[in-house]
Write a structure and sequence with these properties.
It is built from two helices and six strands. By secondary structure, it is mainly beta.
């Protein structure tokens, strides 16, 4: 049975935990929170990053002048860099790493 048909047969509310289960966060995990950006940038160490990893970003809270965030660089097996369009952005950024199916 596919995930889509499983979800379509459910009634009531569906949460991310229902679909994904519990996802650990922290160092070298698929979900985490960066430290505060400095001058609108931060490099996040994570050994799970590959050349194909999809990296989803969500800024947290306020700090400095908020800008749009993106992944500006990655080093497979080591890290990725988050860049804001504002060089005074000092927010932390939550991230989720997803590997595409082959």
């Amino acid at each position: 049975m596919s995930h889509v048909s499983s979800i379509n047969s459910l009634t009531g509310n569906v949460t991310a935990a229902d679909v994904l289960g519990s996802v650990p966060d922290g160092t070298d995990e698929r979900v985490g929170l960066s430290a505060a950006m400095v001058a609108g940038t931060i490099t996040v160490s994570n050994a799970l990053v590959t050349a194909n990893t999809r990296i989803f970003l969500t800024p947290q809270g306020t700090g400095g002048t908020a800008g749009s965030v993106s992944v500006s660089a990655r080093t497979p097996g080591a890290s990725f860099t988050i860049l804001s369009t504002s060089n005074t952005d000092t927010r932390t950024v939550a991230y989720m790493l997803v590997e595409p199916a082959e």
